[in-house]
Each structure stands twice: as C-alpha cells, then as structure tokens.
Amino acid sequence: MQFQLNEEQLMIRDMIRKFAEEQLAPTATERDEKEKPALEQMKAFGQLGVLGMTIPEEYGGEPLDDIADAIVIEECSRVDASFGVFVAVHTGLCATCLVEHGTEEQKKKYLTKLATGEMLGAYSLSEAGAGSDPSALRCKAEKKGDKYYLTGEKTWVTNGAIADVYILIAKTDPDAERGKGITAFIVEKTFPGFTVGKKEEKLGIRSSDTVTLVLENCEVPAENVVWEEGKGLQVAFAALDRSRIGIAAQAVGIAQGAYEFALKYAQERE
C-alpha cells in the first residue's frame, strides 16, 4: 500500500493551502464571531474549479480522487472549519447525490451550476423527531398532477440559509411501513412555499449556517424526484456514507490547525 501522496495530490494540497492561508485565514476569526458565511471566498473557490471535484467533466466538473477530495477539505478546515464543512456538504452530499442518482436532465441543469458555484448546494434529511432515525420522517410530499406539494419542517440543515438548491428527503406514502415510501427531491430556494426558518446558535463552526427549513405546500416539479419515488432512504444513506470521509477530513484539518497554533504559541511565549 502506498502512503505517500502522488504528484497531483501534492499540487492540490499546495494550491488549497495557499488559498486557505491567503483568503480564509485573515477573516476566519471575525467571520466565526459574527456568524458570517464566507460568500466571497466561496465564489473565489468556485473559480478555482474545486467545487466541481466530485462532478464529471461532461457536466463542468474537475473530478479528483477520494484522497484529493479529503485533502481539499482538510486544508480548508486547517484554518477555517466552517469553510471545510461548507465544501463537504456542497460537494459530498448535494452534488454527489445527483452524480450517482440524478437523471441526465437533472445533471445538465444542476451539476453545471454546482461545479462553478453559480448555485450553492445543501442536503436536508433530519427532522426534530427524526435525526438518528430518518425512517421516522414526518415531512410529507403529496403528488397532484405533475407536481409534488411538500409540507413540514427540516432541521439542522448545513448551508441552509445560503444554498440555492437542496437534496431534500420527504415521505410520499404515509401508509407505507416504517422506512418505506420515502423519496428524495431537488428543491430550489425559489420554489413557492419554501422559506428558511430558525438559525441555530452554536458553540463553534459559526461561519457555517445551520437552519430549519419550512415547507408549506412547497411546489416541486415531478421531474425533480431523485432516482425514483420510494428510493429516498437509499439516496440519503449513499450520500451519508460518502460524506463521512469529508467530515473526518474536516476533523483532521481542525486538529492540524490546533496543533500548529499551540506549537507557535509555545515557541513564542515568554
């Protein structure tokens, strides 16, 4: 087994470290204290092409291998844990769901914009009563004609306030047995009946917003079903399995940054 980084991975590491130190680090503390998202930095990151690191080239992406993906999140988190989790959710949860399960039309419509940062992505599975047990979802989706109407609240949504598009999981068959009758949807912030609700107060990672989404007969076109009706938990769990690597990389980056900060302090103190 090869434990050294290859030439491309080293190049990615150096590029992201330079970006992080020059564009994230100078404002990271202030943004965390003021709970202010790094919107300008997100645009600049999109121009680097890194927001398309899980997206195939035919949809405008610049795909990286899994180790390079982790390096990107680690290097961002080394100076700004909030930015690291933004990247992890945008690329590893939202975009990856569409890469793996989206239709050709969905990929052309959304992946091309997610790759550049023209659209920012989020992922919405949890509810107040369905966190560790997503099969207990209560957010419902009722089909009428060529549209679904979603009603309910989704909680703890990372990137929720800044995102333009969400992979959102809702129950389409209220009579189905537990864990069945659940469907994944592509929901845009501009859809009628969609609003961003309460913002959570957090002890850390505060430049990353975590919010409640409120859906009141939110109107979603039927063509925005991901994969097919009833496959929502499969879509959700596949994304979560992949994203755990990104969150682990975030933790490694936080630890590296903390170590470097502590070492510098120990060397400089009187």
Characterize the structure shown.
By secondary structure, the chain is of the alpha+beta class. It has two domains: 146 residues, Acyl-CoA dehydrogenase/oxidase, N-terminal domain (Butyryl-Coa Dehydrogenase, subunit A, domain 1), CATH 1.10.540.10; 109 residues, Butyryl-CoA Dehydrogenase, subunit A, domain 2 (Beta Barrel), CATH 2.40.110. The protein is built from six helices and eight strands; from the N terminus they run αααααββββββββα. The longest helix has 37 residues. The chain is globular. The termini are far apart. The mean pLDDT is 95.
Distance between the termini: 45 Å
Helix/strand-derived class? alpha+beta
How many helix segments? Answer: 6
Oligomer: single chain
- The fraction of residues assigned to DSSP E strands is 15-25%
Number of domains: 2
Biggest sheet layout? 4 strands, mixed
Query: What is the fourth-level CATH superfamily of the largest domain?
Result: Acyl-CoA dehydrogenase/oxidase, N-terminal domain
* Helix percent band: 40-55%
Second CATH tier, the architecture of the largest domain: Orthogonal Bundle
| CATH-defined fold name of the largest domain | Butyryl-Coa Dehydrogenase, subunit A, domain 1
Query: Based on CA inertia axes, which overall geometry fits?
Result: globular
Query: What is the top-level CATH class of the largest domain?
Result: Mainly Alpha
Count all strands and give the number. 8
What is the CA-based Rg, rounded? 19 Å
Q: What are the low-pLDDT stretches, counting only 5+ consecutive residues below 50?
A: none
Secondary-structure element order, N to C: HHHHHEEEEEEEEH
Strand order of the largest sheet: 1-4-5-8
Mean pLDDT: 95
